[in-house]
Structure formats: C-alpha cells, structure tokens
C-alpha cells in the first residue's frame, strides 16, 4: 500500500537552476506588494508601449477584429499564408535573399521563437555567444536548452559596439551560434555595417549560426540607418527575429516571426527539429497573425514617432538630457529602441549591489528601473530606463531619481 508522504515538496526542475530572467524578477514582487497597498508605481522597467498611450495602429486593430471569426481554428504550425507571404516580401525589401514561405515561422512573440530556436539547436555544453549587456531572454533560453551562454563584450567607450576581438577570443569548438541584438536592448546602439561585416566574417570562418534579433529595426533616431544582418551574406546561416510588439505597439497581441536565410543547406536537420517544435505547440495565436500583412505593408506610423518632434524622439531627448545633467551620471545617447542605459560613476556612487539600488529607489521614490546586472553585465554601475512615458512624467521621475542619488549610499 502506498504511504502518503505529506512532506514531499514539489521543487522546480533543475533545468531552471541557472536560468535567470531579471526584468520580471524579485524587485517586481515588491512593486506588486506596494501597489496592492495602494501606492502608484512608475514602471520604467518594461518596453511595453501600450500602457503609455502608444496605441496599436488603427488598421491593425481593425484587421484583428475583422478576422476574429476566421481565426477560430488552429492554423498551419508555421503560420497563416498571408502573414508569411508578407514577411517574405519584407525580406525582399530588406535585401535578405532567397527567402521562401517555408523559411518563415510565426510565433507567439519573438520570445517563443527564441526559446524554440535554442531548444532546437543546442545539446548540453554547446556554447552560444551572447552580448553583454543582453536582452536576458537570450541567456535564459540558452541555459534552459542546456547550452552554455558565453558573453561577449559590448564596449561603452565605443558607443556600445560589439568588441570583435573579444568575440574572436571566445569562439571554441563548442560554439554553435552568435546572437546579435541590433538595434540593441538595453544600450540603444545601432551597429554600423563594418561591425556587422566583421561578425559575419567570424561566423563564416567558424561556421556559426547568426541569430539576429532585429525587433527594434524601425525604431531609429537621428537619421541612423539599420542594416539587416542577413542581407549581407548568402553563405552564412541566419535566423532573423522581428515582430509586432515594438514598432507596431502590439506587444499584447503576441506576434513575431523568425526567418531562416543564407546557408540553409547546412541546416536541414536543425530545420526539421524546429518544424517539430513548431508543430508541438500546434500554432501561434491566430487572430494577431491577420495583422502582420497590414503592419508590414504601406504606411509605417512608427516613423512619425521617431522623427524629430515625434513623441519617442522628444522623450528620448528629454530623458537623455536630464539624466546626463545629474552629477556622476553619463550615458551613450541611444540611436535606436526604447531605452537609456546610464552609468553611475563608481567613484561617486560605489554600488556593490545594483539590485539593492533598484529596490531602494522603488521603496523610496516608487520608481521601477532594471539594474544593469539583470542584463548579464558584470559591473554594477548601470541601470536601464525605459523612455516610453510622456515628457512631464519623465521629468518628474528623473528629478526624483536625481534627488534619491544625492544622498544614496550602500
Ligand atoms: N528581443 C528583444 C531585444 C526585446 O527587447 C524583446 C522585448 O522586449 C523581445 C525580443 C521579445 O519580444 P516579443 O514581445 O515579440 O516576445
């Protein structure tokens, strides 16, 4: 007869032991507790445009509504045809050659496709080169897939561009892929073509898959141009990621895509594996797939927000100006995306624990940021600030942040 053991706790899988995803981590629990007590928290911690009045373009909303009744059933595991066709045509515009419908996967946001691609690619001990700082889902996804994340240095002194020598020095027999996030979260860097070409040279030499996370490719300031990495070579294997969450302000619709291009002949088996993973989750959220064709074609309303006098452009400038006026705070001005990544001078603010800094700021000023170490950065001197709120809110928040720093000690 089985004995009943009331003391047998259910633990989480050891697969999760080293998985770390700070953007929604411990400090957030405290923020939630404070909110439950009735406090208003200013959340500058997540790049979620909608709560800050960045509405999804009307035609996208209407497309989703209009097609709801058509979207009741499962669709093809890789996505509906018109959505994939639109992504394919977009590849032609971006100069990504020879992409066919079968090379395109629609997912529940880029997030799902990142995890799926790493699950499909990695065996225990396989290494993936990931930028530091990074968008931490990449590191978490590699770890969850029993791979080993190896962080390469992005150099703040050089506009946060990837340090090519550092990348080269970290390539081993086990390296399978290199992740490039461009425009970058959290630094806002947009990489010039020469840097991208050097990364491609390394990938070519060492037969690496390049994972290009380009979800911010249309959120560009100061006339800077974005180059799709996969447009620069046909003989290297690329997975390119993009979606509706940022440029189309539809993060809640959970819709993204992954494009396989370049040296596809090298990846037949891998692609079979990813096809299987796509089938295992049946398909991605169908209603929002109907918005992809409208989103990618024609008028791009994001341009109005990033051009001079656009809301995002102005908010970036205000946030940058105010932050860099604080004594001991410096920042590389972001050329893309939705974030500032300021540095606190270690002489003036010798921070031992940047998570504690973020916690203290939350408790004292009700402002929520993310600490630099949450982006797999070793030093404890950085913070990420989302510049989605309107300028008056940013002014208030940064003034309070400056006030907090005046007396802050650890
Ligand atoms: N990649 C980067 C660089 C991001 O910053 C984010 C979200 O912040 C994602 C991927 C996830 O996007 P999605 O909403 O499509 O899952």
Topology, element by element:
Layout lengths: L25 H11 L5 E2 L14 H10 L13 H14 L9 E4 L1 H13 L5 E6 L4 H8 L3 E8 L5 E2 L1 H6 L5 E7 L11 H14 L2 E5 L23 E7 L12 E7 L5 H13 L5 H4 L2 H5 L5 H5 L4 H15 L3 E2 L8 E2 L2 E2 L9 H12 L1 E2 L1 E2 L11 E4 L4 H17 L3
Parallel strand pairs: 1-13, 3-4, 3-6, 6-7, 7-8
Antiparallel strand pairs: 2-9, 4-5, 8-9, 10-12, 11-15, 14-15
What keyword list fits this structure?
15% strand; 3-stranded antiparallel beta sheet; L-alanine:2-oxoglutarate aminotransferase activity; 2 domains; globular; 36% helix; binds pyridoxal-5'-phosphate; 8-stranded mixed beta sheet; pyridoxal phosphate; Aspartate Aminotransferase, domain 2; pyridoxal phosphate binding; 410 residues; alpha/beta; Aspartate Aminotransferase, domain 1
Low-pLDDT runs:
none
Helix and strand succession?
A: HEHHEHEHEEHEHEEEHHHHHEEEHEEEH
Distance between the termini: 57 Å
What is the total tally of β strands?
15
* Shape descriptor: globular
Number of distinct helices: 14
How do the strands of the widest beta sheet line up side by side? 2-9-8-7-6-3-4-5
Overall SS class: alpha/beta
Distinct compounds present:
pyridoxal-5'-phosphate
CATH-defined topology of the largest domain: Aspartate Aminotransferase, domain 2
Fraction of helical residues: 25-40%
Rounded mean pLDDT score: 95
Proportion of residues in β-strands: 15-25%
CATH architecture assignment name of the largest domain: 3-Layer(aba) Sandwich
CATH class of the largest domain: Alpha Beta
CATH H-level superfamily title of the largest domain = Type I PLP-dependent aspartate aminotransferase-like (Major domain)
- Total tally of structural domains: 2
Largest sheet descriptor: 8 strands, mixed
Gyration radius from CA atoms, angstroms: 22 Å
């Amino acid at each position: 007869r089985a004995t009943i053991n009331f003391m047998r706790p259910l633990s989480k899988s050891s697969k999760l032991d080293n998985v770390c995803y700070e953007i929604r981590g411990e400090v957030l629990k405290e923020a939630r507790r404070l909110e439950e007590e009735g406090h208003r928290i200013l959340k500058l911690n997540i790049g979620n445009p909608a709560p800050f009045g960045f509405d999804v373009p009307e035609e996208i909303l209407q497309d989703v509504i209009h097609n709801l009744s058509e979207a009741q059933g499962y669709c093809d595991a890789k996505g509906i045809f018109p959505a994939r066709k639109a992504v394919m045509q977009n590849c032609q515009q971006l100069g990504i050659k020879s992409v066919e419908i079968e090379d395109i996967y629609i997912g529940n946001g880029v997030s799902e496709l990142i995890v799926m691609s790493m699950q499909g690619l990695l065996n225990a001990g396989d290494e993936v080169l990931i930028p530091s700082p990074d968008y931490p889902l990449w590191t978490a996804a590699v770890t969850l897939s029993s791979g080993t994340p190896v962080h390469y240095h992005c150099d703040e002194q050089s506009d946060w561009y990837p340090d090519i020598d550092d990348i080269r020095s970290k390539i081993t027999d086990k390296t399978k892929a290199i992740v490039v996030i461009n425009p970058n979260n959290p630094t806002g860097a947009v990489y010039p073509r020469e840097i991208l070409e050097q990364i491609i040279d390394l990938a070519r030499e060492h037969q690496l898959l390049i994972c290009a996370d380009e979800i911010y490719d249309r959120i560009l300031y100061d006339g800077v141009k974005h180059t799709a990495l996969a447009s620069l070579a046909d003989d290297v294997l690329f997975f390119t990621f993009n979606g509706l969450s940022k440029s189309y302000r539809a993060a809640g619709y959970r819709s993204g895509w992954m494009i396989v291009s370049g040296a596809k002949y090298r990846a037949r088996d891998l692609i079979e594996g990813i096809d299987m993973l796509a089938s295992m989750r049946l398909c991605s959220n169908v209603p929002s797939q109907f918005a992809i064709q409208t989103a990618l074609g024609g008028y791009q309303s994001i341009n109005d927000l990033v051009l001079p006098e656009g809301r995002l452009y102005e908010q970036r400038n205000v946030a940058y100006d105010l932050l860099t006026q604080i004594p001991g705070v410096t920042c590389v001005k972001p050329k893309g995306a939705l974030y500032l990544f300021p540095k606190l001078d270690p002489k003036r603010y010798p921070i031992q624990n940047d998570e504690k800094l973020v916690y203290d700021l939350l408790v004292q000023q009700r402002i929520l940021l993310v600490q630099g170490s949450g982006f797999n950065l070793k030093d404890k001197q950085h913070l990420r600030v989302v510049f989605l709120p309107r300028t008056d809110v940013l002014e208030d928040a940064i003034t309070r942040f400056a006030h907090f720093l005046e007396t802050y000690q650890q």
